[in-house]
Design goal:
The protein is α+β, with helices and mostly antiparallel strands. It has five helices and eight strands. It has two domains: about 100 residues, Glycoprotein, Type 4 Pilin; about 70 residues, 2-Layer Sandwich (Dna Ligase, domain 1).
Length: about 200
């Protein structure tokens, strides 16, 4: 089973995190660095230390995604850092431009703590995965990659999900070894209804 996870974020807190993300990107577009977040103004939920990913899309097409599986920083600061990273440090894309900002939607995924999976075979892993629920991190020596639960939308079959995750880690799609480790997690995700300038 996936780890049971629920972080209570009120709509106002979700809105705050989305504004922090967008402002951090604006700072970068104006030549600045990651937004400095004043913690004394935030609720306990926004100062909790959890993993987070920020995903940028333009018309449902990925434009950047950066985050951390775990964080020693308060959630609001992690969101500011991840949003800035998704806009300017995701090496799959050129840095975001001012013109693109109004066309860009932001989604934030807050991660549960990771739970190690004890599986002895590829078939056992595939039968254990919960499509649309589990995020999956794999690690084999210096190879490491993760897919958030929302990747199930593009890869709904467990076999394809795993094969693409292995390829993302730089491993053969049929790779299996005794040093291969898996961790599952779940997310609470929310985003902007429409892109806003």
């Amino acid at each position: 089973m996936a780890p049971s996870f629920s972080i209570k974020l009120r709509e106002t807190e979700r809105g705050q995190l989305l504004r922090i993300a967008r402002q951090s990107i604006r700072n970068g577009l104006q030549g600045g660095d990651v937004l400095e977040v004043a913690l004394h103004e935030l609720s306990d939920a926004l100062t909790s230390r959890l993993g987070v990913f920020v995903t940028l899309t333009q018309q449902d097409t990925l434009r950047g995604c950066i985050g951390a599986m775990q964080s020693s920083e308060p959630l609001a600061r992690s969101v500011a850092e991840s949003a800035y990273g998704a806009a300017f440090r995701d090496h799959r894309f050129p840095p975001l431009t001012t013109h693109e900002l109004a066309l860009t939607s932001i989604e934030i995924s807050v991660l549960s703590p990771m739970a190690p999976m004890s599986v002895e075979s590829r078939s056992e892993l595939l039968s254990t995965l919960q499509p649309e629920v589990d995020g999956l991190l794999l690690q084999d020596r210096h190879h490491r990659s993760t897919f958030l639960p929302k990747v199930w939308e593009q890869l709904p079959e467990p076999e394809a999900f795993l094969a693409h995750l292995l390829a993302k880690a730089g491993l053969p799609t049929d790779h299996w070894s005794t040093t291969l480790q898996f961790y599952r997690y779940s997310t609470v995700s929310f985003g902007e209804v429409t892109a806003a300038a």
